């Protein structure tokens, strides 16, 4: 039967690789089907999103807000941001939002960061709290929450800049009384530094902006990033602020979703941040993120997968995470290693064909992302042939970090101060 | 102050807030300034007084105020950080029981400062507007004309140095001679 189809199809295909890859699909080759699953999971939603954007051009704009703008407290936690904190604070002061207050919580910086912040205090809109000891990011944000007086709280990284109008666009989503948090759109400020930052720019566009946009649209936004997200202050207080430990943003997002609140993504609420420019810091960052994911999504909040407790959408979110960020990467890595070691690379034609498919699909996704989100720039398309290797490298590193975390091998991370780690009852 | 020197005395009810006395009698500082000009005395810094920029009164009540509403009704507040759950809140949010204080977020007991909780730093709370802040501002209130001065306007406060005078023997003699002359003249009348 399968032989019939493959032989019958062969005249219609344009290369031997396409024919063989089709044959692999029809003969239920596990790798070929993994490829299909990945396409269904990552590419199809992007194409659907594009069609939606063509049919309803205003579908991704923030809701209209016709009342007085609610007061916003911008909470910035930082440790040694140096003069960069000035740019961050200035971007908020000049973003055009009326009645904004900025609280900069300095986490015992060893440089002059607190002084840089204090230089803005005379403006009346900025308050600085300089901690006497290193408390970590969650506690620093909690200090900001304790001091805040707004109706909405905007959590912003100390080395980030927001665009004019960003706070308006985020705040507008809170017209929906069921929205508890809204994520901003993170873009790379240093994208043009080198090849690595340009690849990250592509990644942030495809896996950040566009992925969050369609996931927000169907109620499956998995994260309100700690770099730039807005919350109802009353909700943050009701939850007692951030929990101690790693992965503060992932954890807060899940806790909010568990309470039944909606999470949204604001495509037009742009903020700019620098990302690693060399390989080792990038790998360290991704290892930390992967560990956060395993700690928070798998170990701490595994019960999110229970649809009777937290609803169907949360169950889908948890299952999707488990399948595509834990099981599939681990399985694929192990299976590829086993195959290479025990069978050699026996299907170079199929692998090449899959790679070509992947690149073509990625090029389409870049075009769609550029059309919808104006990022990445089309000039980045020339890098797309390298992109699968970049992602494969990061995925492999992440798999190691995830396995390590799940097996609880050296679970301590220096991001959490030792004295706090020692006192934590559950060391997520 | 060394022998042969004249120090000012604080006189809150006087126009300039201080004055000089010699042998129990009030003396105008201009006399000492005259001695300085003649090389018979030396100025020695004694203190600095602040005067109201509106009425020049030295009766300025300097105190810490809220940076937002400028109210002086501010209190030091205790901010606590519970390590286990990350909660940060005012000390009075932690309910006190026999077993210690309980965290309002996780219900865990906080017992040992430094090992299960600590304070991130000093904090003030304004009873006037509700603002919490780490560094209060300085503010002044004139007790003569009731003007409030704070923030940028603190730079308008008039500062005036007050001096003691180290007088040379020749200066002392001149001073005494002048005084005797004045006394004699008064007796002749």
Describe the structure.
The complex is a heterodimer of chains A (428) and B (189). Chain A is α/β, with parallel strands linked by helices and 428 residues long. Chain A has a domain at 72-292: Alpha-Beta Complex (Spore Coat Polysaccharide Biosynthesis Protein SpsA, Chain A). Chain A has helices spanning 2-9, 16-26, 30-55, 84-93, 113-118, 137-147, 166-171, 195-217, 233-238, 248-258, 279-300, 307-310, 312-343, 348-373, 387-406, 418-423; strands spanning 72-78, 100-106, 126-130, 152-157, 160-162, 179-188, 228-232, 262-273. Chain A has an 8-stranded mixed beta sheet with strand order 3-2-1-4-7-6-8-5, sandwiched between helices. Chain A is globular, with a radius of gyration of 23 Å. Chain B is an alpha+beta fold and 189 residues long. Chain B has 2 domains: 5-52 and 157-188, no CATH class; 62-140, no CATH class. Chain B has 2 helices and 18 strands. Chain B has helices at 29-37, 169-188, and strands at residues 5-6, 9-10, 18-22, 25-27, 41-51, 60-65, 74-77, 79-82, 88-90, 95-97, 100-102, 109-110, 117-118, 123-126, 132-133, 137-142, 148-150, 158-167. The two termini of chain B are 37 Å apart. Mean pLDDT of chain B is 86; it is low at 180-189. The A-B interface holds A 118, 121-122, 124, 127-133, 135, 138-139, 142-143, 145-147, 149, 240-245, 419-420, 422-425 and B 67-68, 79, 81, 83-90, 104-106, 108, 114-116, 118-121, 123, 130-135, 151-152.
Which strand-content bin applies to the residues of chain B? 35-45%
User: How many beta strands in the DSSP annotation of chain B?
Assistant: 18
Question: What value does the Rg of chain B take, in angstroms?
Answer: 28 Å
CATH superfamily of the domain at 72-292 in chain A: Spore Coat Polysaccharide Biosynthesis Protein SpsA, Chain A
**How would you sum up the global shape of chain B?**
elongated
Percent in strands of chain A:
5-15%
